[in-house]
Amino acid sequence: MKNAVGREIPEVVGGRTLRPFEGAFATRASGRKAARAQKGIGRDEEKLLPSLDAALEATGLADGMTISFHHCFRDGDALVNQVVDACARKGLRDLRLFATALFPVHKPLLEHIESGVIGRIEGSMNGPVGAFVSQGGMLRDPAVLRSHGGRWRAVEAGDVHIDVAFIAAPQADAYGNANGIHGKTPCGPITFASVDAQYADQTVVVTNDLAPYPAHPFEIQQGWTDYVVEVDEIGDPGNIASGTLQITRSPTRLRIARLAADVVVASPYFVDGFSFQGGAGGVSLATVAYLGEEMERAGIVSSFAIGGGTRFLIDLLHRGRVRTILEGQAFDIEAIRSLREDDGHVTIDPGHYANYDSRGSSTYRLDAAFLGATEVDLEFNANVNTHSDGLLLHGIGGHQDVAAGASMTIITVPALRGRLPVIVDRVTTVTTPGEVIDVIVTDRGIAVNPAREELRDRLVAAGLPVRELEEIKKEAEALTQPAGVPVFGDEIIAVIEWRDGTVIDVVRKVEGWA
Amino acid sequence: MKNAVGREIPEVVGGRTLRPFEGAFATRASGRKAARAQKGIGRDEEKLLPSLDAALEATGLADGMTISFHHCFRDGDALVNQVVDACARKGLRDLRLFATALFPVHKPLLEHIESGVIGRIEGSMNGPVGAFVSQGGMLRDPAVLRSHGGRWRAVEAGDVHIDVAFIAAPQADAYGNANGIHGKTPCGPITFASVDAQYADQTVVVTNDLAPYPAHPFEIQQGWTDYVVEVDEIGDPGNIASGTLQITRSPTRLRIARLAADVVVASPYFVDGFSFQGGAGGVSLATVAYLGEEMERAGIVSSFAIGGGTRFLIDLLHRGRVRTILEGQAFDIEAIRSLREDDGHVTIDPGHYANYDSRGSSTYRLDAAFLGATEVDLEFNANVNTHSDGLLLHGIGGHQDVAAGASMTIITVPALRGRLPVIVDRVTTVTTPGEVIDVIVTDRGIAVNPAREELRDRLVAAGLPVRELEEIKKEAEALTQPAGVPVFGDEIIAVIEWRDGTVIDVVRKVEGWA
After folding, report:
1. Is the same domain home to B224 and B317?
2. Domain boundary among B237, B267, B284
3. Count of domains in chain B?
4. Cys-Cys with B99: which of A57, B123, B164, B322 at CB 3.0–4.6 Å?
5. Element (H, E) at A496
6. Which residue of A has its CA nearest to B28?
7. What is the pLDDT of residues A46-69, one digit of tens each?
8. Is A30 strand, coil or helix?
9. What is the pLDDT of residues A241-296, one digit of tens each?
């Protein structure tokens, strides 16, 4: 069957019945969410265990069960590998790994996939694990990728039942209160994991900095935490950003950022109180910096911005140009410090900012958002998961959530990456449907979704280089070099969920390149 | 059948099967909690409704349904009466009123009970509503009283299903984020209601101060909130305290407070890092003040204290004698201001501090707690619900939760109230079982629970006036005047739950006094 973006979705994959994507806001859940486990504790019972191995024993983790993790240390994470190693030592098999996201640092997992310790993965796979799975890695069932909000939704809805959540906590007390903004190696809020802690049958907080009771803020609460383990290392905050936290120096990318800021200024949204989504990545940082200058010039104050927080966003907060930052994920040390110090910098969780099955996401209150893509197509669909070589190399992050929510979603992409085209007839994978993407800003001009005629007229009137997407595409294509085209097999290696749990696309195995 | 404190508990009351109390920590829930309602919203959908009447329409509130409220304005609350009046206007009948607590200000409810608009009450009834119900008010079924933690537990467990939660919010944005510490009439945290907001089928936030998005802290979250209503008045913070916030000047009560502080100092718990529960009421305030002096003298810093926050506790925080205050309920303006300003003053919800069906309550980390009682008996049982005249005049509050949790629970009572005895053979109603009460401090001496022999020896060694409870009782009885003894009917007008959902006692109708 074909879904609403024209992708062929099988009815059943890996024993799972798929619901095809029907449109960005087409479904409305009814009935009940999953029911959380009842728990109890003796008054004098303690939770501290001496090791991860002891935690595996205490929780009774067994073959086929689901273990979960957050990715707040990103490429600096040290917990996933330690726990899966411990599972391997214990002889466990066919575990489902339900991490929010995996990074190059998790390459050692390949061995555990091959040996059958890990049988399934649900979550983003950035880099080597994705590449491996794309080429027929030995997972029993296809991976499932979800957005930040989609993952939260899936846990609450009971689509994914977590047996044991392992939560890396830069600071925790022995009773299981934990946070990510204090401690020896703060990584920013760990609220990604709060849905895990609440819905998992058992929750293990793992910390390298055991603090006196009560450790606060209570991003993770004692009432949800079954056990606490102290270890030497949970992650290296130095590898959170992986070098994406410099403003780009590329003239092409600076031009894109400049144009994106100009689009906002020319739009009807650029009035006092407007709201926007910042983010990491060189172009986004430059856009935020330009936007700050424009706000200063216009005497405008933004009511709120949604992070990933960076020093550029914090700077706007400190200068009074942004009244409130809603923060789900901090990208640098300045953002983490600000969370400790600034009243206007407020931690949220993905349930708050992005849960489809709730009475409102923060993203729905956004005026403008800036997002990237690996590819866009003439239907304005965006791909952030696969490259044009077909390999699954990135997660969804908040892409879908922010795009669906913002009144004006701007995709910033170069018309070419090296010699590869970015605007294509049909994206390799649809991550986010064109219906929620309003503007595509490239170094070779700006394209506006035909559904937004009024917006297009405003940008034209402001003298911005508005063009047809196809025109930009053709111009770029003249400069591309032929690259290997992926040859896909039949086997589905990953399912891409839309934020409501329907399937917007599937990713097939790459057999080779032609 | 008799429960573990020897009270006769019927098997069924008002169609509800009762589980008899088995001991303070005898039960352990298993299985699953209640499942929350699935919800959704359109991207551009707004929630603001023009009136409470419009909210009744929008929610589809119907006969026999359950409506819930928090009591953070206490005797200053203005919402319950407004909503029930609106229900009466709409012709609704047989509603179950599930307020955390009712106060004298809610006396107008009597009319709605008599007319059948309200058919059932679950929650504390302080004053006239309790007196009315005690004497055969026209409720269809007996009232159910629960502790703070017990109420949270009951909602999560599905014992009480809330159809519509109405939440008085001193500050809210139009998207349903709400808090109690900002706005025109701050009442302190409204986290009592966060379980209502999460588990109710529908949630209505009612505010007198609509703030720009995003209003924070997020004590109530947008994702839980179906509708927002702006009204002129939600409550008067001036009536939160009802005059209980002065240190007592009564020499008798000052002596009790002094002895309670002395008990702590002489106990093994008075070491650096010790923790205690403060509270309102003249004796508690004086105890906290004395304790502060003793901490100063001994150079001791308390790791944490649990509120009800008052200026006396805030003073200890500011002086560095208490490192952290965990706050579920603020009792004065200084406490509310401190919540806005002091990093060490941390809002918690009853789920965090007191939920039996969780992996730990903050009260379990308490060393010492000071609580009152209307009566105590020779088994060390405490009554806080009824008076010796049999009338149900008070709620449980956190009494059970704190007593069960603290390593040393101290009940402070005068040996006589006026000419009425406070120490009796058998309390009129058992609220909190003697097994979790360690010390009873009266103006005529200190009694130690026989189970705590070592503690008794320490207090004796410190030269404190330790006596047998029976001895104090007899001494007081010589001074009492005969008062009317209640004549109870058969009809059960209220069920007193222990914090695990079992029934520790029932309250019968008062037919008259003999």
Report:
1. no
2. B237
3. 2
4. B123
5. strand A486-497
6. A40
7. 999 999 999 999 999 999 999 999
8. coil
9. 755 677 888 999 999 999 999 999 999 999 999 999 987 778 889 999 999 999 99
Same domain, yes or no: B390 and B453: yes
Q: Does A360 touch chain B (CB under 8 A)?
A: yes
Task: State the residue range of the domain holding A318.
Answer: 251-477
Contact B229, B54 (CB under 8 A): yes
Q: Above 0.90 for ipTM, yes or no? A: yes
**Residue B214 with chain A: CB contacts under 8 Å:** 303-304, 324, 326, 346, 362, 365
B310 and B267 inside one domain: yes
Inside any domain, residue A1: no
Q: Is B8 exposed, middle or buried (0-12, 13-18, 19+ CB in 10 A)?
A: exposed
The reply to whether B421 falls in a domain is: yes
Q: How far apart are CA A192 and CA A212, in angstroms?
A: 24
Same domain, yes or no: A266 and A328: yes
What's the CA gap between B479 and B467, in Å, rounded?
18
Residues B329 and B207 in one domain: no
pLDDT digits (tens, 9 = 90+) for A73-92: 999 999 999 999 999 999 99
- Residues within 8 A of B (CB atoms), A 380-409 only: 404-405
Say yes or no to pLDDT of A483 above 90: no
Cβ A157–B38 below 8 Å, yes or no?
yes
- Does the pTM surpass 0.95? The reply is yes
Burial of B249 (0-12, 13-18, 19+ CB in 10 A): exposed
Beta-carbon pairs below 8 A across chains A and B: 166
* B177 Cα to chain A: minimum distance (Å): 10
SS (H, E, C) A452-495: HHHHHHHHHHCCCCECCHHHHHHHHHCCCCCCCCEEEEEEEEEE
Q: What is the pLDDT of residue B80?
A: 98
Q: Is residue B151 part of a domain?
A: yes
A32 → closest Cβ in B35, B47, B365: B35
Kindly state the tokens that stand for A470: 């196809």
